[in-house]
Structures are given as C-alpha cells and as structure tokens.
Amino acid sequence: MKITSFTREQIRDGLDRAKERRKEQESPVRILFSPQEITDLNFDEVCDTYSRVGHDDFDTVVVIESLPGSADKKLPIPSFKSITTPLGEVMANDRLRNDFCDEDDDFFIEDAAYDDQNSLHSQLMLLQCALNDFTVLSLQITDEGSFTVKELAYAVEEILASKNALIVICCDMDRTRTEELNRVLNTMESENLSGLMNYLNSGESNVKGLGSFIAGLIIAKKWGLKLQFDHLI
Predict the structure, then answer these.
(1) CA distances from 44 to 34, 75, 189, 205, 224 (A)
(2) Which of 220, 213, 125, 227 is nearest to 174 (CA)?
(3) Phi, psi at residue 61, to the nearest 5°?
(4) What is the pLDDT of residue 42?
(5) Quick one: three-class SS letters along 74-143?
(6) Are 128 and 87 in contact (CB under 8 A)?
(7) pTM greater than 0.70
(8) Non-local CB neighbours of 199 within 8 Å, separated by 6+ positions
C-alpha cells in the first residue's frame, strides 16, 4: 500500500513512534535521503528519517529526484503554483524557482518530466505531517551525466546555503550492499570528486536515483555535514 493511501493520523503516529525510539537528541538535519517510493513496507524506516525534522525547523523544502531520459531539458523545474496531496495543498516557492533559473542556464521551468508518479508526491505526505508550514520546490535530474549532476549540486549548495531550507534526496539502495555505500562515502570523504564522478558514469552502481544521491553527497560535503545512513530502502 502506497503512502498516498495513508491518513494524517497514521503518518503522525508513525513519526511519533519513531521519535520515541530515538533515545538521544540528535544534531539538526539539513539533508534527508528518502526512498523514491514510500509504502507500508518501508514506512517505519522512512518515519525514522523524517522524525529528525522538528515542526518549525524549515520554511521551505527542496525535493531532488532523478528521472533519467524523461525530458529533453537536463534540469527541469516543474511550473506548478501549488500541489495538492490527500492531506491538502502545498504552495510552490516561486521566488526560489526563479533564483535557480537565473543562476544557471541549465535550469528550465519545464513540466515534461512531472506527473503524479513523481516521488515528490510521496515525500510531501511525510512533510505535511513533519512540518507545520512550508513551501516546496521540485528539482529534477533527467540526465545523470557527471557535468549535469555537479552543476545541480553546486547551484543548490550556493543558493540554499543561507536559506532555511530542507533538502530531500530521493534514492534507493539495497541495504545489504554496505560495501558499495562505504566505498562511495570513503571516496567522498577523501575529497576524490573525480573518483565519485567515475563511479557515477561507470554503470556499476545499484543505487536507483543515482544522480540525486551523488548530488546530495556533494552538497553535504560542501556544507561540512555529517553523513549518516540508517535506511536507504
């Protein structure tokens, strides 16, 4: 059963249970890595992730997802003014959308890759229960080439550095493949960006949503954030 069939009470109960499972107060988060599809099978794990967000922590959320081959533009940004889920309406951050389009010629306001199957819709259901009030911006990667991924990561890092924004990275990794995750994180920690890009282009990865995953790692490194992965599937 998909998250879009859940009620607000079910989701809030899941978040409350997850908060109770955490024994210690953790450092504030700025980036979350969340599965592309949220169902009853991974709901508890996703609640563990989103429970780290306080109700008043952020006033806007940027959701990044990889949709390779879904549009001609490499970095499209959907044009919606608002988006409605079963839990209600969320307004788009139009000013932030324009900031990205002004920053780099690779960003275009384009709806070709946007539909009701995007991971954005599932993430919003959790966000509407985790945050009191927020706006949203959807960033899509339709070309997972290293140049495009780096351009997106650098633009996000620069534009959002001083803004009160949460970044949600949509990606999936088989939790049994810990050696792959460790190898990627070690490459990132050693500041071997070329090695990371070689991994991106090699076709050897088992990560779904690889472009958004790598972009999230680059942004976290630029901001000096501590990376912690409990669940990626």
Answers:
(1) 12, 31, 29, 26, 28
(2) 213
(3) -130, 135
(4) 93
(5) CEEECCCCEEEECCEEEEECHHHHHHHHHHCCCEEECCCCCCCCCHHHHHHHHHHHHCCCCEEEEEEECC
(6) yes
(7) yes
(8) 183, 184, 187, 205, 214
